[in-house]
From TrEMBL:
Pfam families: AAA_14 (PF13173), DUF4143 (PF13635). It comes from Bifidobacterium felsineum. Residues 19-133 form the AAA domain. This is AAA family ATPase. Transmembrane segments: none annotated. InterPro entries: AAA_14 (IPR041682), DUF4143 (IPR025420), P-loop_NTPase (IPR027417). Residues 175-335 form the DUF4143 domain. The lineage of its organism: Bacteria, Bacillati, Actinomycetota, Actinomycetes, Bifidobacteriales.
Length: 405
């Protein structure tokens, strides 16, 4: 197993909360992580049909058998358990009783918020980060290889060709999640929709155009985007809400949680194709957004991450907000050569946001990190510079809020 940065946070929260919920995409390493982190816990997979039938038939007896120090994997498959879990957790009233994991964020969190509000801390595990991969000694040869291969643990650790892994991943994902659990029936159309989303990676989302190109209604397109977000395939990055005297674009931008999947959907069968691809810059921008998210999630936080674009097409790729104000303004350039012109928009727009040169960053495709009079220049390996130390956040762990009954 490649060590995961989230391990320390998992262990610390298990000492404070009755239960921990871990969500993330399929094959992101959730089961491996919780089993390695809590080796003394009993592991129960509700993907197993016999176990699932036992839990469905008699939830009380099931939880009497598995009453403490238990990992319940894919627990959203048996929603009836959650109301009974509440009683067991409250009766024992000890930290670290259950680790609940699942790959359907909406289905899982819906049940957690209904039954376990105030009792459970929530963490997310995405595919491997660049830092986790390099720490394991598997340093990507080039940025193009990193973008093309993606970050799912199995192909990274076992050397599986992306051309073999991702088609099977999509087929499995569609069969198990989209059809069985989320009720989508038009699988061929949905598959086309997924590919069309990849062609829009890093772009401002026009749902009407996307729907028209797929031959579906706008309402169906909205529903399917929600399905993809629920399953940790794509996410929408929203524009920054303060306009600083400018008219702003209001639509979100579309990104994938894994660029290897996006590249495969775009029909690329080798990293060398990225060199001349029109999507290379957008995929690099995509991977930087995801790396920022992964760094924050490793300490149990969600970044307040936005983009900024006005009606004159002046844009800042990313803004990270803290305490209601911009903390960093970030421009992304996939070129391995730094050019001072990369700071042009930052120098034009950042002063109005109160950001000096120490808080203006260009993330480029090179390996060096250095300061300039315009701002800071870093490569992907130094993304952690954009993440404050955990102590700077203040407050406690992320928890599901609601009224305890």
């Amino acid at each position: 197993m490649i060590p995961r940065a989230l391990t320390a946070k998992l262990l610390s929260l298990a000492k404070l909360f009755h239960a921990i919920t871990l969500t993330g995409p399929r094959q992101s390493g959730k089961s491996t992580l919780v089993k390695e982190t809590f080796p003394d816990y009993r592991y129960v997979s509700l993907e197993n049909e016999d176990i699932r039938e036992l839990a469905l038939d008699d939830p009380r007896a099931f939880l009497s058998r598995y009453d403490n120090h238990v990992i319940l994997d894919e627990v959203q498959r048996v929603p009836e358990l959650f109301s009974y879990l509440q009683g067991v957790i409250d009766q024992r009233n000890e930290p670290g009783q259950y680790i609940l994991s699942g790959s359907q964020n909406f289905l899982l969190m819906q049940r957690v918020s209904q039954s376990l509000a105030g009792r459970v801390a929530v963490l997310h595990l995405l595919p491997l980060s660049y830092a986790e991969i390099t720490a394991s000694g598997q340093i990507p040869d080039t940025i193009d290889n990193f973008l093309f291969n993606g970050c799912y643990p199995r192909p990274v650790s076992m050397g599986i060709d992306p051309a073999d892994f991702f088609p099977s991943y999509v087929e499995t994902y569609i069969d198990r999640d989209v059809r069985t659990e989320l009720g989508v029936r038009k699988i061929p159309e949905f598959n086309t929709f997924l590919t069309l989303c990849a062609t829009r990676v890093g772009e401002v989302l026009n749902i009407t155009s996307l729907a028209n190109d797929c031959g579906i209604s706008v309402e169906t397109a909205r529903d399917w985007l929600s399905v993809l977000e629920t399953s940790f395939i794509i996410f929408r990055l929203h524009p920054y809400h303060r306009n600083y005297g400018k008219r702003l674009i209001k639509a979100p931008k579309l990104y994938f949680y894994d660029t290897g999947l996006a590249a495969n959907l775009l029909g690329m069968d080798s990293s060398s194709q990225l060199l001349t691809s029109q999507y290379r810059g957008n995929l690099y921008e995509n991977v930087i957004a995801v790396e920022i998210i992964k760094q924050y999630q490793a300490i149990g936080r969600e970044p307040k991450l936005f983009y900024w674009r006005d009606s004159n097409q002046k844009e800042i790729d990313f803004i990270i907000e803290k305490g209601g104000h911009p903390q960093y303004a970030i421009e992304v350039k996939s070129s391995t050569t730094y050019k001072p012109k990369a700071f042009e928009n930052l120098e034009d727009l950042a002063p109005a946001m109160g950001l000096d040169s120490d808080h203006r960053y260009v993330v480029y495709g090179g390996n060096e990190t250095f300061s300039t009079r315009h701002g800071q220049v870093i490569g992907i390996s130094d993304i952690d510079r954009l993440v404050p130390e955990p102590a700077q956040f203040g407050g406690g762990a992320q928890t599901v809020r609601g009224n305890r009954t």
